[in-house]
Specification:
The complex is a heterodimer of chains A (about 100) and B (about 575). Chain A is mainly alpha-helical and about 100 residues long. Chain A contains three helices and no strands. Helices cover about 75% and strands about 0% of the residues of chain A. Chain B is α+β, with helices and mostly antiparallel strands and about 575 residues long. Classes of the chains: A mainly alpha (about 100), B alpha+beta (about 575).
């Protein structure tokens, strides 16, 4: 049985807001490179991306209070950001090299 | 089953996101509900004019030629030919020109209309159209805060609104079956309001999810765009964007004279080439040139977002389709998805049914945020009471006053600024500026009033103000019809009479709320902020009195102040 969740309002909320935005940007960026049509897909894509980014961002901020503590939120979301941004910049390097 | 500690945690999240965003969301939803009827409001506010009918479509070629010859800037930038004959179309053709400005500086535009005199010569006049409907839309988008801060502010609010939805659902889930369809109408009014808050929130949840996502994206549109460009695309977005604007760009003039095809014939050609397309108006560029073109924005029914962005471009000489990649059936999959998001936000699908549905969903949303604030206040009171009656805490009283002042100030301000469209027309130099002055004066005045008098007294007074201001909308039209000397107007179209009729019904609702609130502040528990009695003045009844008309009625009313 896991222990009680610590509220940690400010550390969780800041992790959700900052790292949630980073995750939104990097994941949706990966869609821009790897989605159907790739980076040269018609221009409707970056218009759609704003809505997808908002969706991911809201979801992360909304659910980030489920982390055991603020420290856990920063650690997990930070790791996810590192992975997603690494993949994104790999794509950028690969497609624009 | 969700653990109790998680539910407790998310109850706090729901409370605080709700309390901090409730005001802004009330304004956005109330003004947004009205924005569903942007076109009728714009028609209601437009003074009588020459109109489209003054020049038949068969005489339009001559009018277009005369305008193009006399106004070279319009010939190049586009001359708009109106087709529908609505009151907000001042004449058969209109166009915009740059206001005098220094080269390269940001500048305003001035508006022109033109018609044919009986002798067949040109009559062109510069006249600013009513921007009332746009102003209400601005209040909807940025709650009256100047750009760019208004958009940033509403972006944060929209994000927190999404978080409030997630947390609200988590809180409700464990008792969903038990609570959802149980509207416990009865003596425990707080329970009844919570039940109503839940049922309205869950029933409209798909609408709210769509709104939270799209409003966050639309409010943060500019910053998101820049960040995408620098982090994801690395300069490529601008190139793609340029490509994307290509279908909207008119061909360059080639300098050879060409014979223009008459608009009526162009419309026939359009009908043959795009049979499901409903044209709204036509924009002519480079009239007289062999490369002259006409862009026709319009709707393609059966799609979400059917009227947004879609349009086709024809050659104004041959009537052949030049560009046709922006209407819904021709959009690429990503654009279609993005336009679907937009259409879900703006209620642009399935015509009038969805317009009315969004109107009531918007009002129910406003009610939700309002009722949420009141539930918090009531809970604080009950926690503080612990058996005996207490003085209300300072924060509870201030929040009560702010809720009353902001919400009712917005309602009264919008109604009065609509009324001003007729009373001030021709009597002030810059009517569009006065719309803002009237709104802000009423809004800020109401907030000050609510703090000065307290939530209970000011709620009744401001509700009567809302009633009077909203009733003034149909009364103004009535007066205009009865007394032509007032120099106002009463349009006879169904759309504009609809504005008067809806305002009349709205005024009756406000009157009913004012009467119910009066009862509450006299007879309700004295330690509530909704009471004008001093705590301890007399033995208060254990629970507030029941409402006239029964509790279930409250569900259909957008805002209620007396709980």
């Amino acid at each position: 049985m896991p222990g009680d969740i610590r509220p940690d309002w400010w550390s969780k909320a800041s992790a959700g807001a900052i790292l949630g935005f980073g995750l939104a940007l990097s994941l949706v960026g990966l869609y821009a490179y790897l989605g159907p049509g790739g980076i040269n897909a018609p221009g409707g894509r970056y218009s759609l991306m704003r809505y997808l980014e908002a969706f991911v961002w809201i979801a992360v901020v909304g659910f980030c209070f489920l982390f055991r503590s603020g420290r856990a939120a920063w650690a997990w979301l930070g790791a996810a950001n590192l992975l997603a941004f690494a993949a994104l910049f790999a794509c950028r390097f690969y497609f624009f090299a | 089953m969700i653990r109790a500690d998680i539910v407790k945690l998310y109850k706090t999240v729901h409370t605080w996101t709700g309390i901090t965003c409730g005001f802004a969301l009330f304004i956005a939803f109330y003004a947004g509900a009205l924005t569903m009827f942007k076109e009728p409001i714009s028609r209601w506010a437009s003074p009588p004019a020459v109109g489209v009918a003054a020049v038949s479509l068969d005489d339009a070629p001559r009018l277009l030629e005369l305008v193009a010859a006399a106004h070279p800037e319009a010939r190049e930038e586009g001359i708009k030919l109106h087709l529908r004959g609505n009151e907000n179309e001042p004449a058969r053709v209109t166009w915009e020109e740059d206001a005098p400005h220094q080269e390269g500086q940001a500048h305003e535009h001035v508006h022109w209309w033109a018609t044919l005199k009986p002798d067949g010569t040109l009559l062109a006049k510069q006249e600013e159209p009513s921007e009332l409907a746009d102003f209400i839309n601005h209040i909807h988008m940025r709650v009256g805060i100047p750009e760019p801060w208004g958009s940033y502010f509403m972006g944060v609010v929209s994000l927190l609104y999404g978080v409030a939805l997630i947390s609200g659902v988590i809180v409700l889930l464990p008792s969903l079956i038990k609570d959802l369809f149980a509207l416990r109408v009865g003596k425990n009014l707080k329970r009844m309001w919570l039940d109503a808050h839940n049922v309205v929130g869950v029933a409209a949840l798909p609408f709210h999810i769509a709104m939270a996502i799209t409003s966050t994206a639309l409010s943060f549109s500019g910053p998101l765009w820049s960040v995408q460009e620098s982090v994801i695309f690395g300069g490529k977005q601008e190139i793609l964007n340029d490509l994307d604007n290509e279908p909207f760009r008119a061909p360059k003039p080639i300098g050879e004279a060409g014979v223009m095809m008459p608009p009526a014939q162009l419309l026939q050609k359009l009908k043959v080439q795009a049979s499901d397309f409903e044209p709204r108006f036509m924009i002519f560029r480079n009239i007289g040139d062999k490369a002259a073109s006409v862009r026709v924005p319009g709707a393609e029914r059966g799609y979400v977002g059917d009227t947004h962005l879609g349009g086709v471009m024809l050659s104004a000489v041959t009537g052949e389709l030049l560009k046709d990649s922006t209407r819904p059936s021709r959009q690429d999959p990503d654009r279609r998805a993005s336009e679907t998001f937009y259409g879900l936000h703006a209620g642009q699908y399935e015509g009038a049914t969805i317009t009315w549905a969004y109107f009531f969903l918007g009002l129910s949303g406003a009610w939700l945020f309002y009722g949420g604030n009141l539930l918090w206040i009531e809970t604080r009171r009950k926690n503080a009471r612990k058996g005996g009656e207490v003085e209300q805490s300072r924060s509870t009283r201030l929040l009560g006053s702010a809720t009353v002042g902001v919400c009712l100030g917005c309602v009264a301000g919008i109604s009065l600024t609509i009324v001003a469209a007729k009373w001030l027309h021709g009597r002030v130099a810059d009517l569009n500026h006065w719309h803002e002055l009237v709104y802000y004066a009423v809004f800020l005045g109401s907030v000050a009033w609510a703090f000065a008098w307290g939530a209970a007294r000011s709620a009744v007074q401001l509700l009567w103000l809302c009633c009077a201001a909203t009733l003034a909308i149909p009364l103004t039209t009535l007066l205009a019809a009865l007394f032509p000397a007032l120099d106002m107007w009463a349009h006879g179209s169904a759309a504009t009479i609809g504005v008067d009729a809806v305002a009349f019904i709205g005024a009756l609702c406000f009157a009913w709320m004012a009467i119910a609130t009066t009862r509450r502040i006299r007879n309700g528990p004295a330690d509530s902020i909704w009471s004008i009695q001093k705590a301890g003045d007399r033995a208060a009844p254990r629970e507030p009195m029941a409402l006239p008309g029964g509790g279930s009625v409250t569900l259909t009313v957008p805002i209620r102040l007396n709980r």
